[in-house]
Structure formats: structure tokens, C-alpha cells
């Protein structure tokens, strides 16, 4: 997908250099790939809600559960039907890996409130095709920018939240891998009732200032 984005920039828009590549979640993963695959194409990188290592641990196991729940559902019928498992698995994944522990506790402090929240999510419109859902999650299985991190030339501001369920900071992975990038730092947003776990970085109020500072200090390329 990053190759397609690069071709759009260079062949469709005729751009030869970018000031900034910024992405969130899957876009954050793309940002790491941009930096390793096209190291001279941008001045700065801001990967958010992501880590520069291969898909692993809970993050991959939860994705596998979505994939397997669809493939193993008889109602999927080898891709010719739309099983309810796609909706249920997607809601399960969303609750298990996003939202923030403190924020969810605030929204659903009782069993009744939790049931109401869950019922609303299960009843919400689900326009995605089950095959697209399966492909969307399975496509991340070979993500791994780690072997090429030393190739990154741009200034890197990695932004994650302390309550990110998919990229938990307590593993120390981010700090370890950023040491391999010559001009990189981590901005970690503290978790609170106002953050949303993996969804925190979708709210610019938490990170706009450090990004502005990065853009004002990162050297400009040609």
C-alpha cells in the first residue's frame, strides 16, 4: 500500500519531496514503512498509535481471532455470504483493543450501563463486507519495519498513548527501537478518563503542540 501511495505522490501529483508524513494506527504503521522504504523523500515522520516492530502478541492474536471467526463460520460459505460473526468479532476487537480502560469505566460503571453500551455497538450499522474485514486484518501479518530502521533519515516524532491497548508502553519496545533511529523521540500521552486508549491519537488536542514544534525545527530537505 505504501508503494501505491508513493506512486500517487510521484506519478500522480508530481511531488518530489514531502515536509511531513503523518499517520495514525494503520497509517502509523505506513509511516514507519515510508521512512524505511523512501528515507530521502520527507523531512519528518510522525507515526502515531503504532510500533516499529513486527505484528505480534495480543495485537496479532486479536486480529487472528477476527480472521478465524469469519473463515470458520459456516455462514461465510467461502466468501459468498455475510456472516454475523464479522460484526460480532469486530465489536469484540474494538472493545478489547480500544477505548481506554479509564474511559470505558467512566462510560459503563455498572453492568446495566455496560450492557447498554455493548447492545448499542452490536446494533449499530455494519456496512463492511466480511471479505473486506478478513483481508483488512490479515494484510497486517507481514508488517515489520524493524530490520530497516537505521535507514530512516527524517526527524521522527513517535506519538503513542500510555493506555493504548494494542501498543502497550510497558513492553519497552518503542524505547528500544527508537535508539536505532538517529533523530527520533517519543511523545507519550498520559492515560486518563479523557483519553481513549488506542483511539487517543485521533484527537489532535493531545499532540498538536509537539507536532508544531517538530515542523518548526526539523531541517528542510531539497
List the helices and strands and how they pair.
Blueprint: H1 2-12, E1 18-24, H2 26-37, E2 42-48, H3 57-71, H4 85-97, H5 101-107, H6 111-123, H7 130-138, E3 155-161, H8 173-178, E4 184-189, H9 208-217
Parallel strand pairs: 1-2, 2-3, 3-4
Helix pairs in contact: 3-4, 3-7
Q: Could you provide a short overview of the structure?
A:
By secondary structure, the protein is α/β, with parallel strands linked by helices. The protein has helices spanning 2-12, 26-37, 57-71, 85-97, 101-107, 111-123, 130-138, 173-178, 208-217, and strands spanning 18-24, 42-48, 155-161, 184-189.
List its traits.
222 residues, alpha/beta, four-stranded parallel beta sheet
Mean pLDDT: 96
Give the strand tally: 4
Oligomer: single chain
The biggest sheet, with number of strands, parallel, antiparallel or mixed sense and barrel status, is: 4 strands, parallel
The level of helicity is: 40-55%
Uncertain regions spanning at least 5 consecutive residues: none
Overall 3D form: globular
- What would you report as the Rg, rounded to the nearest angstrom? 19 Å
Q: How much of the polypeptide forms β-strand, as a percent range?
A: 5-15%
Distance between the termini: 25 Å
| Tally of helical segments | 9
**Structural class by helix and strand composition:** alpha/beta
Widest sheet: strand ordering: 1-2-3-4
Order of helices and strands: HEHEHHHHHEHEH
